[in-house]
Protein 1
Amino acid sequence: MKIIVCIKQVPNTTEIKIDPVTNTLKRDGVPSIINPDDKSAIDVAIQLKEKHGAEVTVICMGPPQAENALREALAMGADNAYLLTDRAFAGSDTLATSTIVAAAIKKLGADVVLCGRQAIDGDTAQVGPQIAEHLGIPQITYAAAIDYNEERNSLIVKRQFEDRYQTLEVSGQCLVTVLSTLCKPRYMNVWDIVDQDSKEVGKITFADMDLDAKNIGLAGSPTKVQSTATKQFDKTIETLELDPEAAAKAIIDALSKRHLI
Amino acid sequence: MNKNIWVFCEQRDGEIQPVALELLGIAKELSEKTNEKVGAILVGHNVKAKANDLVAYGADEVYVVDDEELDNFLTEPYVQAVYKLVSDYKPSILLFGATSIGRDLAPRLSARLRTGLTADCTKLECDEKGNLFMTRPAFGGNLFATIACPDHRPQMSTVRPGVMKKAERDDSRKGEIIDVKIDWDTSKFAVKLIEEVKEVQSVDKIEDAKILVSCGRGVKNVKPAFEVAEKLKGTVSSSRALVDAGVMEHARQVGQTGKTVRPQAYLAFGISGAIQHLAGMEESEFIVAVNTDKSAPIFKVANLGIVSDAAAVMKNLIKML
Ligand SMILES: Cc1cc2nc3c(=O)[nH]c(=O)nc-3n(C[C@H](O)[C@H](O)[C@H](O)COP(=O)(O)OP(=O)(O)OC[C@H]3O[C@@H](n4cnc5c(N)ncnc54)[C@H](O)[C@@H]3O)c2cc1C
Ligand SMILES: Cc1cc2nc3c(=O)[nH]c(=O)nc-3n(C[C@H](O)[C@H](O)[C@H](O)COP(=O)(O)OP(=O)(O)OC[C@H]3O[C@@H](n4cnc5c(N)ncnc54)[C@H](O)[C@@H]3O)c2cc1C
């Protein structure tokens, strides 16, 4: 079984703060990490490899420094890693990003493609299903558990909804997007850490893939970001320092004024 | 040329989901500006009877695909059905709820249609020409981006449940119901359903509550909050801190990774007001915050902010209500 895991390097958004003076995102010094859902996808791939035998390849589209994310994945036990990097990829929205990642998967070949459900910076959860469509293979999103049935050569996936779950079976090629709750991402293994130093991170550029320039980058992106803003709040209407009894009374008064009690 | 504003009306077990009615509400509002029709997509099995409800909630046209293949939600048959409707009738705008169904279906469809898709929107506006401007949070709610899709049609977006206002039901409205049959390409149906299991919701639905009594880490004992909620005929909700601590169920969590709520009154006890929490409740009509720290960010969104001890205030509320 050949598994490709698509990972994204993201800023740790829990550490992003808004500069109260300029009202812009303070990104300086915010560390880059492997997107949490993707870390879980790497872990699933390695579990499948340990249980059933598989070759695990991680790929990441991003700037040269995204190689760090791929090195970390190798240290977690992945066999191969490729960085998809080219000036021509800059400014890609999800449709263009998925077009590029799908072209790389076509080139490398895979039975199973794993993605995270959602990246914590762009937050769209769109890249996985779009890759699957470009490849013409079935998708299962929101995976809360994945198992492989050797006899039937099929994946059994628990697909989570808000109010239910489904157990789905798929044989043949497929793409699964996984939730970060699926497993506890493993720590880097000492031997793999040592080993990853000797492994190469391959580079794939525009010229290496079957891609049309008009479908990628800014030009190939149908969505255009018109403007961005950080949050601004209206002024407080009232903040009062009250003893508990007066506070309770103020709340009751306010609610009855609004006919809520 | 593409025309009209369409809504994918999500149903589960034949029940129209609230987000579908919210989307009909915003679609109707947008259509008044662009002078277009509101179209509703209703796909499923044994769902046709619901088409009239969609008319009552604002649809001028309802496109129905009622077929056995659509009994349970599976990506490929649903995509084939919606793709057929969209390629035949060419709407200009296509909206989905940002649910675990909409966020599965919409991106797959956008790639098949090769058009843009904006995720998890919290605000939609348009100009007279029908260009849609979609505003959405990113970077964990720290940033809001307004996105357009100027050169591709349809303009697609998923919209966060609980954010848009439902249209009023009006049973005197008239609309057209159009039945559509699909020639399935079953060779693509590779994913087989083994079972579907409903998970009983053991907690009250916070998104339907009129009053929410919401607890954060500053509430050491949550039992009194349930008493306050009961007396107010409200429901208890929570910040993520108490969910992570195992004190509250995830279904009660308000915020970016929880639910978006807009009750008539939101009472925040011992909640600091992190941006990810505010993302889920700031549209509430009236916000009360009780917190011992007068510099807590929750006070910036509160209509009535009270610097006081949460437990003691709740105790007094129980006594006085
Ligand atoms: C503020 C802002 C808002 C945006 N809004 C939109 C929008 O609404 N619509 C739109 O089309 N684009 C949007 N974009 C662009 C979008 O963020 C980028 O295209 C991004 O490269 C991919 O989207 P994502 O981060 O949402 O990934 P997601 O779709 O959330 O990622 C899901 C999974 O896909 C895989 N994946 C994602 N990116 C990569 C990668 N580079 N390499 C390998 N695997 C990857 C990972 O497995 C990941 O877990 C926005 C960008 C910004 C800055
Ligand atoms: C990607 C991401 C997604 C997230 N999603 C969510 C989400 O969906 N929902 C969410 O809520 N959070 C979310 N968070 C977490 C969020 O950042 C905060 O950590 C969380 O909201 C804090 O919860 P809290 O206000 O209860 O706790 P704290 O921030 O610890 O605040 C406790 C407050 O209680 C006050 N207090 C203490 N004692 C008393 C007392 N006796 N009486 C009154 N007040 C008292 C304190 O002054 C303080 O303001 C998310 C974070 C990230 C990074």
Protein 2
Amino acid sequence: MRSNSSPAKTRPTPWDALVVAAVVLLGALTALLFYGPKAHADAPLTCVVSVGGQVADAAPLASFSGEHTYSHNGYTLTVFVHDGQVEVLHSDCPGQDCVRSGAISRAGQSLVCLPAQVVIHLEGAVDGPDVIVG
Amino acid sequence: MKRALSLAAALALVLSLTACGAPKKAETSLFAMDTYMTLVAYGDGADEALTESARAINELEQLLSRTREDSDVWRINHGGGKVSSETVQLLARALAFSDETGGAFDITVAPLVDLWAINSDHPHVPSQAEIDALLPLVGSEHVSFGARESAAPGSYDVAYVDEGCAIDLGGIAKGYASDAVKEIFAAHGVKSGTVSLGGNVYVCGMRPDGKPWNVAVQDPQGDGYACILSLSDTFVVTSGGYQRFFTAEDGTVYQHIIDPATGAPARSDLLSVTVICPDGTRADAYSTALYVMGEEAAVGFWRLQQDDPFEAVLITADGRLVCTPGLTDHFTKQEGASYEIQFLSR
Ligand SMILES: [Zn+2]
């Protein structure tokens, strides 16, 4: 390749325009990947129910309304989803911690029944805390 | 040629940024130590770190459980016998915390915990006579160590309690387990992660995006959060009566934390205590102790620990959220929580 290339060759061609467009597009894509909203940012809460360590249900909270029953370790829980919140309506577990925990409605919150090994977890919102203590 | 190179370079840039933007995430959860635990770790060693952490937690449960008949604690409570060096270590720390906190934290309160049975299916409100009969069994002086001939010089490998006494390490075992997880994470090069062992949280390093972790403190009076703390490389433990309680037939609410001094559920003017410090075992013991002490004594205790300081959030029954000054730059008020925020002065 010669350094003193002719002026005609340095003039932009349609190919150059294509390269510029591609670079701009890739740049924009990169920016979107890193600074743009995460894919699930505006997605509603997802209610994930695991029973004995296995996911039994995972559904958008809004379309999961009503009563759901889960049985494990000889105990049965009735979970009630309504108005954007989840609660354990009744359970035949000893202690009744899961029932007493009340309702949850925010990303990151969980309801746990230790005897039945049932965990109800809400995930999804972008601004939820990383971890909850208490 | 140049054009092709430019395209390749742009593509490579995108790919490399994508690759370094997301360290590998691993997650696990388990039921152990009477609670539900979730562990998250980032980085190349994350999977191994979590597997080993779960194994360590299960092993600690085998040593420290009060109900397993093959545990060290069972042996101590049933005539005494050989115990592991870990159990001896943890017992010694528990007795030291009891001493430091003037008995507000005390592992020998177990007979009274059993009498009330608040965490069980059949809670019971005992008579004062029943309580008075058991109170003399509470106190560090009832725990003793011994050594068999095979024990290393100067070390103990036997522990026992006086007749009728019993210990329960439930108020400290999860904290001890979280300290063990911290060491396992470090050994596997994990520099970012969160560990939640029931009310015991450990935040390892920073989040993968380089920011501190947002730790939400549960609102003891609602389903939301009382505040958010931005933290890294520390332990956060909450104790509160709201976590477990029972309501008697006459409507009286009895919460689950027994005051070793009275032998009855602590009548604390606090709803919850959150302790933040770089020692998980200490944070666990202190959170219970400060709750039992109540606001005034808890603040006094905090002031006395200036050479080895810790941070705390006290939520009072009269609607205040009292923070130690070290949390000023880590604290975010939570919308919806109506507590009056107060920062202590040094
Ligand atoms: Zn339950």
